[in-house]
Amino acid sequence: MKRSYLDYAMSVIIGRALPDVRDGLKPVHRRILFAMRELGNAYNKPYKKSARVVGDVIGKYHPHGEQAVYDALVRMAQDFSMRHPIVDGQGNFGSVDGDPPAAMRYTEVRLARLADEFLGDLDKETVDFFPNYDGSLMEPTVLPTQAPNLLMNGSSGIAVGMATNIPPHNLGELVDGLVALIRNPGLTVKELMGFIPAPDFPTAGFIYGRGHLRKAYETGKGTIKLRARAVVEKMAREREAIVISELPYMVNKARLIERIADLVHSKKIEGLKDIRDESDRDGMRVVMELKKDTEARVILNQLYKFSAMETTFGINMVAIVDGRPEQLSLKEMLQHFVSHRREVVTRRTVFELARAEERAHILEGLKIALDNLDAVINLIRSSRTAAEAKEGLMTNFSLSELQAQAILDMRLARLTGLEREKIDEEYRELLMTISRLKSLLENESLLMNEIVEELLKLKERYADPRRTELIEAAEEISLEDMIVEEEMVVTVTHSGYIKRTPLSLYRSQRRGGKGSTSAQAKEEDFVEVVFTASTHDYVLVFTTQGQVHWLKVYEIPQASRAARGKAVVNLLNLSSGERVATILPVPVFEEGRFVFLATKNGVVKKTDLMAYSRPRVGGIIGLTLDEGDEVVAARLTDGGRHILLSTANGLSIRFDESQARPMGRTARGVKGIELGDDDTMVSLEAIDPHEAVATILSVTEGGFGKRTRAQEYRVQARGGKGIITIKTTPRNGKVVGVVVVNDGDELVLVADRGKLIRTQARGISVIGRNTQGVKLFELAAGERVIGLARVAEED
Fold first, then answer.
1. Residue among 256, 239, 240 nearest 248 (CA)
2. In the chain, at which end, N or C, are there fewer CB atoms within 10 A of the end residue's CB?
3. What span, in angstroms and rounded, lies between the C-alpha atoms of 9 and 2?
4. In what order do the strands lie in the sheet with 48-49?
5. pLDDT digits over 631-668, tens only?
6. Is the pLDDT assigned to residue 474 strictly greater than 80?
7. Which residues lie closer than 8 Å to 344 by C-beta, 6 or more apart?
8. Domains defined along the chain, listed by start
């Protein structure tokens, strides 16, 4: 069984699945081309039925299933499978949609003109022949091809224990590479890639990244990324459409369209209104119409990520070398082809030299006969038999048997003067040919020049421009690339439920309105944090225990205004008893920016933003807290801000940020404000000292609030008791938040039972610090305001 299985495995490897490194053909393809040649089915002859060709192939050379042979024949005629088709087909040979070809009794074929370069020198003893399966005929072991077919058309196949997948290339580039290698055999793969930069697929498209290519060309194994060519076109009524005109190699267009439709149906891709296949005989055109206000770039990235508009081609360059399968680099493949051409041209030259010398030998005899014409005629006339005449010619004129026979076979018309001149001319030309052929055999450089000239003629006849475009740098599509960038309202409840909702869903309301529902919290829960951020922003999550965690806004689950959201503990790796204290949106981490932190007990700390730029699964230490203390808020600063700290009892202090020197990430911090016995810090703001029109908005639990000009808050030394920012009474309650606003700002106020109101800052009165404020939010009995945020649409 072991011996039998090994015999079977080797038969599949050598005789079926892997191409020969010399002509790039598997046995079935070689036999098809040879059988078509024997049938006289040339490019300049009429087409013949495919069934006739298949019958000849399986009856004479390839005793396998007729469907397998027909499939191989069809593929050689498909211009979307072969970079340079070798068979010229007439009829239905399938399509890029995966449509099957018509039955072999309907289709017709003949050799393509390029196939002449595969079979041209077959009669000149350029390759060895061996008996067919029943010993009745001879077939070539390899074709004497001038075209570097293995790389030109590529190959794929699965053998036993190994496989091959060689991409097609541009013929012109291959010829340039071969010529360069012949003239400088020491070229490296990197240098050869200057001539052969990348594969060139018949279906065009894009190849992304040169780095992976170089590895594949150097080792014979690697992967490359292929993408469809898609453009965004403007349509009527301010709509857009994504139009696909080229596909990655071997992608089925019909299946791709079905896949995209499934993605739309399953809501994995949203924003596509219609998909139409407008392809015709002039080219491919798949139109995907977008819904209004849909961002085409995001949809395109989603299509690349989830469909076959982006595929990976695994390069595995395995071929048969001297009867054994080998993994080959680009240079080794080219070297093997050059060696094959050297052998073919050498054997062809030897054959042509032998034939030229034979003909010259005969012409020498004819010239002797013509020079002694009367004597030759008398000898022939006096001879009783042809054998006697031949013997007499050989004896009297020192001729060989071939020469004597040629004289006897000569027609009388050759005795005219004009014919004698033709013999002399032919003889002179033959002597020149013999001299040239001998020079080729004796001089290696002349032989290689002959190969180069043939390659350049091949390029001139058949090469065409590159179809597949090479993009140097590979673009990795991240999840972020597939997320539309838009403003979101992010809300966090006291129990730690978080969600995001598009800002566009909130309608702008006048001061004193009833508000709209933001989150349906549980009875014991209430909304505690609300802010706006882009979906692409980072979010630093500071916990009550001083830990810092990372999120992207798009990673926060999106929910309706009435939904509660998802527990933060399910998004972050929080320890037992750890709660979210403040969430800070960060567009990008960069040098020269700081995080300013404040705690309930009045401690502040400034740390470089880059100290928080390396996330860990369990988070990192944001600051070290005293026992019983917790983080209240965090702000981004640029080092030149004024810090405004506000307390629940209506006090505040403003000091220059420089009074708090930058500290390490794990440091405790310094005193920011001197708190009273029953007071706590509720708010931290970073003020631009050059902002002249800014006002300080203070909001209390009872829904009261007011704006006060920032100039009324004098700059003090850090650590003092501060000044009044709003007068707190049982009527308006304690302070819940203090923010810096301008007239154009919009504000979001949140009540503990989930109601939310959005209002314009300019609608809130600007009054002095030592006042109670005006009614901002109409609250129900027992309801209180617990949070506010500035909506920064243009920030």
1. 256
2. N
3. 10
4. 48-49, 108-111, 87-90
5. 888 888 988 999 999 999 999 999 999 999 999 989 99
6. no
7. 121, 126, 127, 144
8. 25-144 (3.90.199.10), 229-308 (3.30.1360.40), 332-462 (1.10.268.10), 508-525+589-791 (2.120.10.90)
Sheet of 497-502, strands arranged across: 527-534, 487-493, 497-502, 566-567
Would you state the structure tokens that stand for residue 316, as one six-digit string? Answer: 């595995």
What one-letter code names the amino acid at 703? G
HEC secondary structure over 433-465: HHHHHHHHHHCHHHHHHHHHHHHHHHHHHHCCC
pTM here is 0.69
Calculated CA dihedral for residues 459, 463, 465, 471, nearest 10 degrees: -80
Instruction: Report the catalytic residues.
Output: 106
* Spatial separation of the C-alpha atoms in residues 373 and 180, rounded to whole Å: 56
pLDDT tops 90 at residue 416: no
Sheet-wide strand order for 229-234: 229-234, 240-246, 286-290, 272-277
Strands (E), 186-334: 206-208, 221-227, 229-234, 240-246, 272-277, 286-290, 310-316, 318-321, 324-327
Q: Could you count the other beta carbons within 10 Å of the beta carbon of residue 378?
A: 11
Q: Which amino acid would we find at residue 122?
A: L
Per residue in 677-699, pLDDT (tens digit) is 889 998 999 998 887 778 999 99
H or E stretch at 255: helix 253-265
Task: Write the DSSP string, 46-95.
Answer: --EEHHHHHHHIIIII--S-HHHHHHHHHHTT-TTT-SS-SEEEES----
Q: Are 749 and 759 in contact (CB under 8 A)?
A: yes
pLDDT at 509 (0 to 100): 47
